[in-house]
């Protein structure tokens, strides 16, 4: 479309000025060392154009044939600009080497070159954060464009890295309505709410997250087992959990009836001293298929010695699935709840054997 518009403009200019140049072609005479060159203005322009193209073609052929270097006009740049570009390169290399202090200093020097200003400001902010200078990091982040969602992400992410979730929530709250389909920023918003233990506000954002698809289907299945157990248990402990509350009823029915929510209820019962009811609720709803996703939430439920039925069910599953790492992890959890440290360690070693990812964890979580 742009090309067509440009062609139409050229055609209109040709129709407008063509007759003028045809009737008044102009006259140019060049006298040099006894040589006289005479031509019309149009003819001179065309001749110079052809000559320039011919010279460019000759130079291009020489470059290809003799591998000549490209002509650089870097000498036209000011020393300050060259220094800024060099500092940007050094800053990126320092960042890659985790030399945070050096990277921050280099990005500060690179500000002299206006190109990629926002990028350099972001890199300077994260470099300062990793260098243990949160105040400098926040100052660099504050200089970003306040109207850009990408800037919101940087500011809030730095606050979370500084373990200041409440400040991140306060910063993002007036901007939440404008997050839209920015899934990365939306997920950070939920993370800030969860770390700040703003459970009701967090649950109020769930329908928005589902509608705007902040998560893929697979990622949401994983996240809900982090979200609901913590939210339900947190609200219950504060006496604020009510299944008739508007924020709870606003959740889709499949979410309210999900295993993740039931794990939260089981955790709340266990904290309230109703461990037997918690174990029954867990057994009535837990399936072997759901165990890998449910495991992080299960291991945080303080069932105490009320794990006899759960232990029997785990041993029953192991008869047919003897190489299932999560089953051995669940067996280790049951032994630990009953105070049997030796059996817990033995089962945990089995879990690590069949699921190497457990080697980065401890049985106590």
Structure report:
This protein is an all-alpha fold. Among the domains are: 82-144; 197-302, no CATH class; 307-365, no CATH class. The protein contains 19 helices and two strands. It has helices spanning 2-23, 41-66, 79-96, 100-110, 117-130, 134-142, 149-161, 165-172, 183-195, 199-211, 217-237, 246-249, 253-256, 259-271, 275-285, 291-298, 308-320, 325-337, 341-354; strands at 28-32, 35-39. A two-stranded antiparallel sheet has the order 1-2. Strand 1 and strand 2 form a beta hairpin. 29% of the residues are buried. The chain crosses the membrane at residues 41-62.
List the helices and strands and how they pair.
Layout: H1 2-23, E1 28-32, E2 35-39, H2 41-66, H3 79-96, H4 100-110, H5 117-130, H6 134-142, H7 149-161, H8 165-172, H9 183-195, H10 199-211, H11 217-237, H12 246-249, H13 253-256, H14 259-271, H15 275-285, H16 291-298, H17 308-320, H18 325-337, H19 341-354
Antiparallel strand pairs: 1-2
Helix pairs in contact: 3-4, 4-5, 5-6, 5-7, 6-7, 7-8, 7-9, 8-9, 9-10, 10-11, 11-14, 11-16, 14-15, 16-18, 17-18, 18-19
Subcellular location: Cell inner membrane
Main location: membrane
Protein name: Heme biosynthesis HemY N-terminal domain-containing protein
